[in-house]
Amino acid sequence: MYKLEKIKNNIILGDTIRELKLIKDNSVDMIFADPPYFMQTEGELLRTDGTKFVGVEDEWDKFSNYSEYDEFCFKWLKECKRVLKKNGTIWVIGSFQNIFRLGYIMQNLNFWILNDIIWSKPNAAPNFAGTRFQNSHETMIWCTKEKKAKYSFNYKTMKYLNNGKQDKSIWDLSICIGNERLKDSRGKKLHSTQKPEKLLYKIILSSTKPDDIVLDPFFGTGTTGAVAKRLGRNFIGIERNFEYVEAAKNRIDNIVPEFTELNNLALEVKPPRVPIEKLLEVGYLTEGQKLYDSNKKIEVIITKNGKVFDGVDELSIHKMSAKLLGKTNNNGWNFFWVFYKNEFIELNKLRYIYQEEAYAK
User: Fold this and answer.
1) Nearest partner of 239 among 175, 190, 288, judged by Cα
2) Could you report the per-residue pLDDT of 173-200, keeping only the tens digit for each?
3) How far, in Å, CA of 108 to CA of 105, rounded?
4) If phi over 0 gives left and psi between -120 and 50 gives alpha, with beta otherwise, what is residue 94?
5) Which conformational region is residue 232 in: left (phi greater than 0), alpha (psi within -120 to 50 degrees), or beta?
6) Does residue 95 surpass a pLDDT of 60?
7) Residue 358's closest CA among 281, 303, 268?
8) Cβ within 8 Å of residue 8, ≥6 positions away
9) Spatial separation of the C-alpha atoms in residues 218 and 36, rounded to whole Å
10) Kindly report the CA angle at 172 between 170 and 175, in degrees rounded to 5?
11) Spatial separation of the C-alpha atoms in residues 78 and 84, rounded to whole Å
């Protein structure tokens, strides 16, 4: 059995099922699993210009039949559930070829599904033959070990990153291209299914805390480890391909952790105690400046004493938002929006911007 400190922030070279068995029960906070999809690619895929499209042709994605694939998935998912902490979560990604089988197995193992997340890919490869719809998304299943688990979900952080609006279960993120895509000695892509860092950034930031341990049992070229390190989290990777492991090590060694207020989940604590008068005093707001509702259908003007005027009444932002909504009480920080440096943001966000910039000085 591995000692946790020995494998933390390291990559284990070996078969994932065998190596998972050597990790202690209830020892990791989050798991991201990007298993073989069993894509069953047959024949050559040709672009419209006649050149070959290189998809997933790797040996690690080949199985004799569904029974063999299902048995493989049952075994690694069972071990993942064992090593996951009581209140931890697991993310499993797949496409139409395998995601329904994975979901069925996970429910049979009594995982509790929190969400299915759609990763929508605006730059996905087309259906070259024109015989089907373009397959432009993958699905992630996010689960806990049991229904009553007290799992981590950084709601306010994700809302902040989504321009002050509740984040949704459809994520528009480009596939891994350009300099981010690791290449082999011939200049070809090293791994056929390398995931973009932006995808893992959202996953890890949304469902972990600083210093949590993130396990990736199909580590590949190390996207999970690179993002975990950047966010101030720990990682454990398992990968059986030596070439992938070497590339992942070099990649992660060059990552510098970013200990920002956002990554440290400052937004998940109580909002900064910054009154509107302070924002006026330091110039983040100005007398006479307009505040709006999120649809820009309502306008009020900031007065010199930190209140707002709608042409009839001069009230606090809370009482004014309550009046406009026909309520007794309402949080004006979340109701009003403002233009700041040519960006339209929720007024509440301005408090965090002020706090972060004051912290950086």
Assistant:
1) 190
2) 999 888 889 988 888 888 888 999 999 9
3) 5
4) beta
5) left
6) yes
7) 281
8) 213, 234, 235, 236
9) 8
10) 125
11) 10
Mean pLDDT of 84-108: 97
Q: Helix, strand, coil shares of the chain as percentages rounded to 5?
A: 30, 20, 45
Task: Tell me: pLDDT of 45 over 60.
Answer: no
Query: For 189-215, what is the mean pLDDT?
Result: 95
Alpha-carbon distance of 15 to 245, in angstroms, equals: 13
Quick one: average pLDDT of 309-322? 97
pLDDT at 56: 60
Q: How many other β-carbons are positioned within 10 Å of the β-carbon of residue 282?
A: 12
Domain ranges of the chain: 4-267, 270-360
Q: What average pLDDT does range 196-223 have in this prediction?
A: 97
Helices (H), 165-241: 197-207, 223-230
Residue 216: which of 171, 168, 252 has the closest Cα? Answer: 252
Say how many CA atoms lie within 13 Å of 341 toward its Cβ: 6
DSSP reduced 3-state for 119:
strand
Tokens of 170: 């459809």
pTM for the whole thing?
Answer: 0.74
Strands 170-172 and 213-216: unpaired
Which residues on adjacent β-strands are paired with residue 344?
A: 339
Structure tokens at 92: 């499993």
Burial class (CB in 10 A: 0-12, 13-18, 19+), 206: buried
Q: Which CATH number fits domain 4-267: 3.40.50.150, 1.10.357.140, 3.40.50.720, 3.40.50.300?
A: 3.40.50.150
Query: In this structure, which amino acid lies at residue 329?
Result: N
